[in-house]
């Protein structure tokens, strides 16, 4: 961190870091909305105000409390680093950013599960739930936290989230897509600097129309070439150019959501494990057992 004001902080991290995260993610199959990536890098930019060596907020707090600024900064670092995992969670589960919410019940379920997950995370990292936790209880609480924040991690193992659609069927897929939606597409080709490229992008389609019109909304033209689509033009300054698409790339496939049970069913075993740990600790609380961290079960 450089101790920049909030606005300048965002400009710097979004300019320098966001494109790198988007490109690395696309090359490894992680396709996320740009707003999620910007919030991801902005989070770490803001942490510079709390953590050394900059730690402006920590040093200001130390001056108010009349304590040693270095010790205050180290303590702030210790507490803040435990929250560094949170941006990774909303990158992998964008519903935490209210992206992809389908209705009021889904909204309430997402918010409620996130609140419970944050409280359980605090209990696990502090080592105290109803009473002082044993080491394996803290591990169980962290597992509950992870499942509530990222249920798709386990659910995708049994039910893949997306199914692949060949490029030959993309015309119908694009025409039938609802207004102002985005489609996950995979492209292959050789970049202008001679590198082999295979990556996925989230392509916005705009208002309903023909395939040509909807692709033009994203700033590209394409023509059929066998079972693939060949990108013939990328408009300067368009969304497609910002996504790293280039003339000559081939659209080889698309991905659509698979028909599967809701991933929120993973909340059931997570809450069952939480209740199990709570029952054990409540029994120790009632019997007055010694609250020694790491005690034998």
What does this protein look like?
With 297 residues, the chain is α+β, with helices and mostly antiparallel strands. The chain has three domains: 1-92; 94-161 and 261-297; 162-257, no CATH class. Helices cover 50% and strands 16% of the residues. The chain has helices at residues 6-16, 18-27, 34-47, 56-65, 69-81, 86-92, 104-126, 135-149, 152-158, 170-176, 211-217, 239-242, 267-287; strands spanning 162-166, 181-190, 196-206, 220-225, 228-234, 250-257. Strands 1, 2, 3, 4, 5 and 6 form a six-stranded antiparallel β-sheet that branches. A hairpin with a 5-residue loop joins β2 and β3 (196-206). The protein is globular, with a radius of gyration of 24 Å. Residues 293-297 have low confidence and may be disordered.
Give me some keywords for this one.
297 residues, alpha+beta, 3 domains, 6-stranded antiparallel β-sheet, disordered C terminus
Brief characterization of the structure:
This protein has helices at 6-16, 18-27, 34-47, 56-65, 69-81, 86-92, 104-126, 135-149, 152-158, 170-176, 211-217, 239-242, 267-287, and strands at 162-166, 181-190, 196-206, 220-225, 228-234, 250-257. It is an alpha+beta fold and 297 residues long.
Q: Write down the Rg.
A: 24 Å
- Separate helix tally: 13
Percentage of helical residues?
A: 40-55%
Strand content: 15-25%
Query: What's the main sheet like?
Result: 6 strands, antiparallel
* Low-pLDDT runs: 293-297
SSE layout and pairings?
Elements: H1 6-16, H2 18-27, H3 34-47, H4 56-65, H5 69-81, H6 86-92, H7 104-126, H8 135-149, H9 152-158, E1 162-166, H10 170-176, E2 181-190, E3 196-206, H11 211-217, E4 220-225, E5 228-234, H12 239-242, E6 250-257, H13 267-287
Helix pairs in contact: 1-3, 3-6, 4-5, 7-8, 8-13
């Amino acid at each position: 961190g450089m101790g920049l004001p909030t606005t300048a902080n965002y400009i710097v991290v979004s300019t320098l870091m966001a494109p790198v995260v988007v490109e690395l993610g696309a090359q490894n199959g992680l396709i996320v909305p740009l707003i999620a990536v910007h919030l991801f890098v902005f989070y770490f930019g803001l942490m510079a105000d709390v953590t050394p060596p900059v730690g402006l907020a920590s040093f200001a707090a130390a001056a108010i409390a009349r304590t040693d600024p270095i010790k205050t900064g180290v303590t702030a670092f210790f507490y803040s680093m435990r929250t560094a995992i949170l941006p990774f969670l909303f990158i992998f589960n964008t519903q935490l950013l209210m992206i992809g919410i389908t209705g009021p019940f889904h909204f309430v379920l997402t918010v409620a599960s996130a609140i419970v997950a944050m409280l359980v995370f605090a209990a696990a990292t502090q080592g105290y739930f109803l009473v002082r936790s044993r080491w394996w209880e803290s591990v169980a609480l962290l597992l509950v936290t992870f499942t509530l924040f990222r249920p798709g991690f386990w659910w995708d193992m049994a039910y893949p989230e997306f199914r692949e659609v060949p490029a030959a069927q993309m015309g119908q897929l694009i025409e039938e897509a609802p207004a102002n939606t985005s489609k996950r597409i995979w492209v292959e080709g050789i970049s202008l600097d001679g590198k082999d490229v295979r990556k996925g992008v989230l392509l916005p389609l705009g208002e309903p129309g023909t395939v040509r019109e909807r692709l033009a909304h994203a700033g590209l033209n394409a023509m059929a070439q066998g079972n693939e689509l060949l990108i013939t033009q990328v408009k300067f300054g368009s969304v497609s150019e910002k996504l790293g698409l280039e003339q000559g790339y081939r659209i080889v496939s698309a991905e659509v959501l698979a028909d599967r049970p809701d991933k929120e069913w993973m909340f059931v075993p997570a809450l069952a494990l939480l209740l199990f740990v709570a029952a054990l600790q409540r029994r120790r609380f009632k019997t007055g057992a010694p609250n020694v961290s790491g005690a034998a079960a």
